[in-house]
Design goal:
Length: 170
C-alpha cells in the first residue's frame, strides 16, 4: 500500500485531514504550488491526474517550462563518522568527495526496490517449478512410487515411522 501517486513523471504524496475528512496532496518537484483534494479515496487519483493536466496546460499557455529546474547542488547533514568514511572511501578510489557521493546515490537509486524485484522473480520461478512438479506428479504410477520409496527413501529415513513421523537422516 502506498500513498504516492505518479503520472507523466510527476508525483505527489497523498495525505489525510481527519477533522475535515479530506484527502489532499501537492505535485512535488515543481516550482509552483499545485494541489488537489477529494473526500473520496476512489477519486483522489483522478484529481491528481486533472491537477497535472491543468498545470501542463497553464504552463503551455504562459509559455513557461513546467518542471522545476534542479541546479544539482544541495546541502546534506550526515553523522560525522559517515562523513569520515565516505571521505576516506573517496581517497581510496582516487575520487572527489562529491563524485563519491554521487556514485553512492546513483547506486542506491539503481538498486532501490531490488528486494521486491527479486521476490517477484523468485515467485515466478517458484510458480513454474510448482507447475512442473505437479505435472510430473500427475504422471506418476502409484505402484512404482511405492517400490521407489521403499528402495531409495528407506535408506534416508528412520524406519518404523508413519510418513508424517519419519525423520530425515541422510
Amino acid at each position: 500500500m502506498s500513498n504516492i501517486l505518479e503520472y507523466k513523471g510527476y508525483c505527489a504524496k497523498v495525505e489525510y485531514i481527519i477533522e475535515d475528512e479530506i484527502l489532499f496532496g501537492k505535485i512535488e518537484g515543481i516550482g509552483d504550488l499545485v494541489t488537489f483534494q477529494s473526500n473520496k479515496a476512489s477519486e483522489i487519483k483522478n484529481e491528481f491526474i486533472k491537477a497535472v493536466e491543468d498545470y501542463l496546460i497553464l504552463c503551455d499557455e504562459l509559455g513557461k517550462e513546467p518542471n522545476k529546474s534542479y541546479k544539482g547542488t544541495f546541502n546534506i547533514r550526515i553523522k560525522p563518522e559517515l562523513h569520515r568514511k565516505i571521505s576516506l572511501q573517496a581517497v581510496k578510489n582516487n575520487n572527489s568527495l562529491n563524485n563519491e557521493i554521487e556514485k553512492a546515490i546513483e547506486f542506491y537509486l539503481l538498486n532501490s526496490g531490488f528486494e521486491i524485484k527479486f521476490a517477484e522473480k523468485f515467485s515466478d520461478l517458484y510458480t513454474q517449478l510448482l507447475k512442473q512438479a505437479t505435472s510430473m506428479w500427475d504422471n506418476v504410477n502409484p505402484s512404482k512410487l511405492e517400490n521407489y520409496t521403499n528402495s531409495v527413501f528407506s535408506k534416508c529415513f528412520i524406519s518404523n515411522k508413519t510418513y508424517k513421523e519419519r525423520v530425515f537422516k541422510c
